[in-house]
Amino acid sequence: MMSSTSLPIKILYFAYLREQLGVDSETLVLQGQEWTIGKLRSHLRSRGGAYAQAFAADKTVKAALNQTMVDDSAVITSEAEIAFFPPVTGG
User: Fold this and answer.
1) 30-65 pLDDT tens trace
2) CATH ID of 6-85, from 3.10.20.30, 3.40.190.10, 1.10.3720.10, 3.30.300.30
3) In what order do the strands lie in the sheet with 62-65?
């Protein structure tokens, strides 16, 4: 098995996520191999509290990787920018 890698990323939070979490962005260093958006969601949810609520399985939270909309299978690369936001509603 390969040695553990460090993956620095920036996460941006928008709309109610920013308000619920109390931060608009954060920088994380992910450890290990092959992180996906889905794995990152689970990691954030495991923090508990507001993160567990914001990323609960029943919440629809969209994700963008380097300003491109992606699904949970998208692989995160080093220095990536990930944005999480609620679906846009019309009206």
Assistant:
1) 998 899 999 999 999 999 999 999 999 888 999 999
2) 3.10.20.30
3) 25-31, 6-13, 80-85, 62-65, 68-70
